[in-house]
Amino acid sequence: MDIASLVLQFGSTAAFLLLSAVGLAVIFGMMGVVNLAHGELIMLGAYGTCLSYSHGLPLAAAMICGVGLATLAGMILEATIIRRLYGRPAESLVVTWAVGLIVSQGTLIILGPSLPSIPTPFGSFVLGTKSFSAYRIVLIAASVLSLLAVHFLLKRTRFGLHARATMQNPEIARAIGIDNAKIYRWTFALGSALAGVTGALYAPTMSIVPTMGGSFIVQAFVTVVTGGGNLLYGTLPAASGLGFIQTALTAAFGNLLGVLGLLAAVIVSAGVLPNGLAYYLSGKRVS
Amino acid sequence: MKSILHLLEGDQTLGRGPRFWCTALVVLVGALVFGGLASSFAVDTASYFLVWVFMALGLALMWGLSGTLSFGQTAFFGLGGYCYAIVATNFGPDNGLTLVALLLSVFLVAVIAAIVGLFMFFGGARGVFVSIITLAISLSLETFLSQTAGPQWKLGSALIGGFNGITSMPPITIPWFGSDYEVTGRAFYYAIVAVLVLTYLALRIVGNSRFGDAMVAVRENPRRAEALGYNVKAVLLAAFVLGSSLAGVSGVAFTTWGLYVSPDTMGLAAAAMPIVWTAVSGKDLTATFIGTILLLALSQTLAIYGSQYAYVALGVVLIASVLTCPEGIVEKAMRLSLSQSGPGNKVRTTSRARWRNA
Amino acid sequence: MKRKAGMLADHCSGLPRWIQRVAISVAFIGNVAVAHAAEPIKIGLLEDETGILAQGGTPKIHGARLAVEEINAAGGVLGRKLDLIVYDAQSDNRRYQELARRLISNDKVDVLMGGLTSASRVALQPIAERAKVLYFYNNEYEGGVCDKNVVITGSSPDQYQAVVPWMIKNVGKKVYTIAADYNFGQTLGLWVKKLVKESGGTLVGEEYIPLSVSQFSQTISNIEAAKPDWVFTAMVGSNQVSYFQQASAAGLNLPMASPINGTLLYEHKQLPPPVMANMYLGVNYMEELKTPENAEFVKRWHAKFPKEPYINQPAVDSYIGVKLYAKAVEAAGTPEREAVINAIETKDICVDSPEGKLCFDKPTHHVSHPIHIMKVEKDHSVTTVADLGVMPPVWLHEKGCDLAKNPQSTQFTPN
For a tag on chain B, would you pick the N or C end, based on fewer CB atoms within 10 A? Predict the structure, then answer.
């Protein structure tokens, strides 16, 4: 087992968990909306990217289109349906699940069962005896960057300040003049945009089918819930910890134990730390 | 009579008084007549719908009364089904051993639910963490069982079968002088109706008992309940075991209906279904009972006549009903027709307690 | 009916009474026979038009529809039209169970067909058997089924795994297996082990991957470390198909062999070149097959289904399933189940198909397929590199599967 290869596997696995989770961490972690359509928002990011690319746009521009599509879909969703569900997690579960069903089925009906995939950019590089896809490095970097960007947005900008205030105590936030509805709208848009980023980034590595959201949704939820409400102290350690466990087990014992190990780790951590990692790591600060 | 009715009625369940019970009796008689007169296909399909009601009722109890949103109903459904399949294949249909298989399966599910519940509730998990633990359990079982394909994966004479599942196990067979009696077709229907009616009545009694009050107290405000002397963890555990065992009953019923059980009964889509049924119908026991059957009938009708639009139509129906009737469409209809006011089932929880309650 | 009898009575009024009675009875029976002959033969079809299996399942429905259309245009079967009743099973085994019962009890079909995964076959088999309805499974699968009430028109490993010894002879001796971690993948892995040993090759590694996995960096790394000459793949489902793109991006340019990666989800059309380059496929059918019958067939298909992205192998299995059933009913003289099974087991039932002439393998209820080795080139065009001729399912014969002499309901696995 060479170390470089293992480090790269770990980075890839953790990046996948992190990128799956980051959009949901904003929507669920901050707003309490159980968004089971998160996978479909990722799918729209991938589809937007693919459709733009097949119409001749260069990959980077196509990815921006993909993000745009997911953000637009998210904003429409928020304006029509989600805004009636704030503070009601049970109903948001059913409704977003139904929305996901409509979106994935609608995509099947309109665009058919699959789209031609995008070639993975940047080729490969050799490290020791093994060769790796250079794009993996891009994914790892992108996952860390997107997390830091969101963290920066929430901690250092005015919008972030207002958003955190609204999440902590909507009544008082409104009392000091913050427009709650606007904050919810833009936070949901942010979460959707992040989902779009995930879909756009992973599009050149996966087959493009309407049900591809299913590859991300479980990872997203277990990472967000295990981590807790905070991005830096919750989602990031959760993705790293779960990623480490899955990588180690897969390298030593194979994929089956990697998958089962991840699920077992989720069970144990949710049982032993039933407030999320963030609660314990951040010294009981929330958000 | 009056004392039995008194046990069956209360604040935790909708429906009281002679008009309600007479309607229920009429419905029951109608169901019994249907079993005799309708075509064997219609009876078969009706049995299939009824099979799932146990699981839905279990969730209505756990979620509606004690506030535990479990994604594990499908896990216990699968465990019950597999247990019956393995035991019945090994023991065979003679000497009434399939009945032993049935009881053993439900018992085993209860034991496993107790172990899981102990770990969860006594470890302090609540709300969304219970959901994620139970979801992870469902998915682990699905992943594990899918790969048990080879001939080395067997318990006794029963091959676990991996992704293909287990088939051709004996149906419930009642020993009788001369030839044993297979409970299939119309007999299966009557058996399910009987067990379901008894289960429903029993759950109404439980819900309206002091234990039911305890569950509601725990759901509304665990700290206050604890301060008043209730053992919150024990209450949650008991509700969880009861609700999950009912999922096991559904599992056994499903397996004996189709003589087939497979791991995909425990996937994510399957795990979401009982929650969808309960949320859309309303968490009241009677509402869930009726709503589950209606939703299953609707989704099957859409599958037959809707072709590729089936899922889209189903999604639209679900969104419309939840947005217009957040307390559940069947529950709202029941409240309006029964004009029953009063506490009933409180569905909403305070938004500040987001991380503690589902 | 009454009017005809009345007219007959008028004509016959001069004849002795007993002749009149016989004439009326004959007319009555003749009318009934005509009415019965006009009644269509019903084929109940369950496939996945929606859900995760939609990409593989939709062409199968088209195959059956095309076959029914062609048979009806040529006069039907025994003077009766074929009626195809199709339900969408939504990639859900429970729907398969529910809708099969509907087809059997409500629509009263004469034969049940369908299912993509073996799991759906296993779900349908007891329902069909208890209802005494014949069941056709029209899909490639993991092999070994020897069942009196089941007919399988897809190919099995004792046919398509011929690609393994061919690869060992022509490409290299060291093999690495990656397969989906469930019945189909595991059984194929066992076949690879068996054939590698018999052909003097070496298995340098094998990996079984759960169906939910979509990221394969560790697997790619393992393959690089093991240094095989070629990789045997049985990756199933759109999650696992992502492997090929990721392997190519990582610079893993090894030859590959598979009976499924190119035939079910048409990876060489979906993924950008040169991801599937040097993939060798062991198949009974691919759209790129160069037989004269196939050129015609592909034209007919695309004329009827212009939006079809690709004619996959199960689509043609479905097409020939309907055609073989029609032939069997004709040979039996009736769609009655016992007679049809008897015809399959005793008579030579063959049809013309895009693969060429295909016949039932009588003792096993399978089909003897011509097997080809097809190669995917750098630009994702497909060439035929070897024609291995018609291969009956010999392994099932070796296992003693003779359903005429020894009716049973088993599935054999290689040990």
Answer: N
